[in-house]
Amino acid sequence: MSTSIEINETVRHYYGEVLQSSADLKTSACCSIDAMPQYLKTLMASLHPEVVERFYGCGSPLPPALAGKTVLDLGCGSGRDCYLLSRLVGPSGRVIGVDMTPEQLEIAMRHRDWHAQRFGYANIEFLHGHIENLTTVGIADDSIDVVVSNCVINLSPEKPRVLAEIFRVLKPGGELYFSDVFADRRIPGELRQDPVLLGECLAGALYWEDFRRMLQVLGCPDVRMVKQNPISLDDPDIAHKIGMVKFKSVTVRAFKMNLEDRCEDYGQVACYLGTIPEHRHAFDLDDHHHFETGRPLRVCGNTADMLGLSRYGDHFQIMGDKSRHFGLFDCSPGPHGESSASGGSCC
Ligand SMILES: C[S@@+](CC[C@H](N)C(=O)[O-])C[C@H]1O[C@@H](n2cnc3c(N)ncnc32)[C@H](O)[C@@H]1O
């Protein structure tokens, strides 16, 4: 049985020495630029090619409405998402990237001045440290507006500690928005230490129900799935070892606020104002809440709070409060299905 230190060392070796570019990965997890919305593709064009080549993420955890915010990227690697975030938060915002692999951070840091010159400002700090203990890199309680992470939490041998740290450093009303590999079952014990399966983000992949329970313990009983994509195991050896498990890359959204463990009906209505510049016509909270600009939608109490008590509050009109209760909220699946499997509650 490997210790946490040994698992960290296996992962550090994989990302510091084994992989040289995203082409070396053995699964389809690494998402292509084609899947990005146009405004992110435009920003991608302003990044240094080496930073783009060394991207090992499995999604685009870049939520809207970031101008002026402080964003923390856990396991920032060679910095692709940090440089995109730098543009999204703008000169009055701040981006902090944390990673434990010196070789990855060295690439991120080497291109900092190059990007600062292109962007006309410098607002990124890269810190060497472990995401299980963010005090060692000086991240204070309640100091971060948004925590993002791209294909990293699965690699941690101490996931509950990472999640606890996230909720410690987030400001009240702050958002966790991350992409990661999830498995349709718990990974068999004998495969969890396999160095290649670990490095490829498979051996430590989260089983959704266990992840949901971890967040519940931390006081977050309603977590939302935003997007999901199946991952194919392209390498025959890997498929032979672990092909009985189905993997997907999932983008997840959770908030630091008091929420209920079920969707309750208080007769509330939310209307998106269309004021987020890159999302003029609609805003997707999750895979079954699609808010068209100007079109009121009935919402449960949790959804009303996620929209009204977070930074999205400036962009929504929430009608009604919690003074009168009408029972459980009937949150039937949207056109994409997945309602009951996609969150900590029915919503
Ligand atoms: C799959 S790569 C993703 C890198 C980056 N997010 C991206 O999208 O390109 C995983 C990264 O997480 C870092 N990492 C893994 N476990 C970590 C831990 N416990 N603490 C800090 N960094 C960690 C690795 O060093 C590596 O750079």
UniProtKB/TrEMBL annotation:
InterPro entries: Arsenite_MeTrfase-like, Methyltranfer_dom, SAM-dependent_MTases_sf. One of its GO terms (molecular function) is methyltransferase activity. Residues 68-216 form the Methyltransferase domain. Its EC number is 2.1.1.137. Pfam families: Methyltransf_31 (PF13847). GO terms for biological process: methylation. Keywords: Methyltransferase, S-adenosyl-L-methionine, Transferase. It comes from the Bacteria. It catalyses: arsenic triglutathione + 3 [thioredoxin]-dithiol + 3 S-adenosyl-L-methionine = trimethylarsine + 3 [thioredoxin]-disulfide + 3 glutathione + 3 S-adenosyl-L-homocysteine + 3 H(+); arsenic triglutathione + [thioredoxin]-dithiol + S-adenosyl-L-methionine + 2 H2O = methylarsonous acid + [thioredoxin]-disulfide + 3 glutathione + S-adenosyl-L-homocysteine + H(+); arsenic triglutathione + 2 [thioredoxin]-dithiol + 2 S-adenosyl-L-methionine + H2O = dimethylarsinous acid + 2 [thioredoxin]-disulfide + 3 glutathione + 2 S-adenosyl-L-homocysteine + 2 H(+). Belongs to the methyltransferase superfamily. Arsenite methyltransferase family. This is Arsenite methyltransferase. It comes from Methylomonas rapida.
